[in-house]
Amino acid sequence: MNTFINQLVHQLGFWASWLLIPILFEIIPTLWHSFRTNYSRILNQPLSTPKKLPMISIILPVYNSEETLFDCIESIVNNTYPKNLIQMTIVNNNSHDNSFSEFGRAQVAFPNALLQWIDADQGKAKALNSAIYNRVGQ
């Protein structure tokens, strides 16, 4: 009987730790942040934003993307991040359509956007690497 009680205590300890660890490290922090976010919305207090936002670089690989390139650039420009802190590098991987004319149309439509066009005819990997080396932001 004594061994049965010892085994029961050990198994209960094992399963209690398996239940306790997710509760402590996942469920409680999630509930806390959810409460904090919703409580700030109830009080109409905006969540704190950093005082200085970093510049970001977005790399758009292009291969015969005439139909979607302008819409992609437009969706990036229309987000809530400051426009002067977004650098878009469009990397052309030997396209055979009018992707460059869509890039030109985007430059005219969004004059405040930081757009850069790079031609790379050596494959996708080299095209992306050349864009990474030419980026300014993070």
From TrEMBL:
InterPro entries xrefs: Glyco_trans_2-like (IPR001173), Nucleotide-diphossugar_trans (IPR029044)
E.C. no: 2.4.-.-
Keyword hit for Membrane: yes
Residues that span the membrane, as ranges: 12-32
Domain of life: Bacteria
Keywords: Glycosyltransferase, Membrane, Transferase, Transmembrane, Transmembrane helix
Protein name stated in the entry: Glycosyltransferase
